[in-house]
Automatic annotation (TrEMBL):
<keyword id="KW-0342">GTP-binding</keyword>
<dbReference type="InterPro" id="IPR001474">
    <property type="entry name" value="GTP_CycHdrlase_I"/>
</dbReference>
<dbReference type="GO" id="GO:0005525">
    <property type="term" value="F:GTP binding"/>
</dbReference>
<dbReference type="InterPro" id="IPR043134">
    <property type="entry name" value="GTP-CH-I_N"/>
</dbReference>
<dbReference type="GO" id="GO:0005737">
    <property type="term" value="C:cytoplasm"/>
</dbReference>
<feature type="binding site">
    <location>
        <position position="115"/>
    </location>
    <ligand>
        <name>Zn(2+)</name>
    </ligand>
</feature>
<dbReference type="GO" id="GO:0006729">
    <property type="term" value="P:tetrahydrobiopterin biosynthetic process"/>
</dbReference>
<dbReference type="InterPro" id="IPR043133">
    <property type="entry name" value="GTP-CH-I_C/QueF"/>
</dbReference>
<comment type="subunit">
    <text>Homopolymer.</text>
</comment>
<comment type="pathway">
    <text>Cofactor biosynthesis; 7,8-dihydroneopterin triphosphate biosynthesis; 7,8-dihydroneopterin triphosphate from GTP: step 1/1.</text>
</comment>
<dbReference type="GO" id="GO:0003934">
    <property type="term" value="F:GTP cyclohydrolase I activity"/>
</dbReference>
<comment type="similarity">
    <text>Belongs to the GTP cyclohydrolase I family.</text>
</comment>
<keyword id="KW-0547">Nucleotide-binding</keyword>
<keyword id="KW-0862">Zinc</keyword>
<feature type="binding site">
    <location>
        <position position="186"/>
    </location>
    <ligand>
        <name>Zn(2+)</name>
    </ligand>
</feature>
<dbReference type="GO" id="GO:0008270">
    <property type="term" value="F:zinc ion binding"/>
</dbReference>
<feature type="binding site">
    <location>
        <position position="118"/>
    </location>
    <ligand>
        <name>Zn(2+)</name>
    </ligand>
</feature>
Amino acid sequence: MKHEKTLSDTLANNRRSSYSGVSMCEDDDCLDAMTDNEPQIIETLSSAVTTILGGLGENPEREGLLKTPERVAKSLRFLTKGYRENPEELLKKAVFKESYDEMVLVKDIELFSMCEHHMLPFFGKAHVAYIPDGKIVGLSKIARVVEVYARRLQVQERLTQQIRDAIQDVLNPKGVGVIIEAKHMCMVMRGVEKQNSVTTTSAMSGEFISSPSTRSEFLRLIHNRS
Ligand SMILES: Nc1nc2c(ncn2[C@@H]2O[C@H](COP(=O)(O)OP(=O)(O)OP(=O)(O)O)[C@@H](O)[C@H]2O)c(=O)[nH]1
């Protein structure tokens, strides 16, 4: 009983202090955190991890765990670095006038994200296509947009739509198609424990919706069918 009280006190204290020095995101495109004080953020996160270790019945003071809170804090900062990046600005860095008007597809872009429900990884591949309308974008920027949105707490559906919307808004192409195939560790290593399940999501705009032949070509190119 005494232990429970101590633990909940610690949790309450952590909740109060957890916002100090950390700008919280009000929306998905929040960039406030860019101005945050990194050492303060690492300290706040480390203290929370120490609490978790205690809550698991571990001794955070034992040798093997001494640096774990800071390691986990830094790891979490990396895995959520997408909150501190602006995908639209990133795309705008490499937009070029060009008359090419066939489909451009970047497929098999590997992604690692974390589900917002369990904070466990989901990972897989994104396939992103667009049909230019007078402007093309640097190919690496497409993979970077995937990376920015993936490095946030996500659901796969929203991730898919955000990638589509960023490309649509910046390039204003004739259409965008995004397909993500991913494996969710929250379904593999816990919960329903389905090791082989893969989730596919898609988000389309413009000709990818209005033209069945464009959509078919997209799917054919992704799956290398002739
Ligand atoms: N739609 C969607 N669901 C997700 C995603 N990532 C995780 N989930 C699901 O989020 C749901 C959360 O359900 P809850 O019933 O609140 O949580 P839970 O008791 O841990 O559920 P189980 O995973 O079924 O044990 C689960 O069904 C997860 O599979 C995602 O990207 N998209």
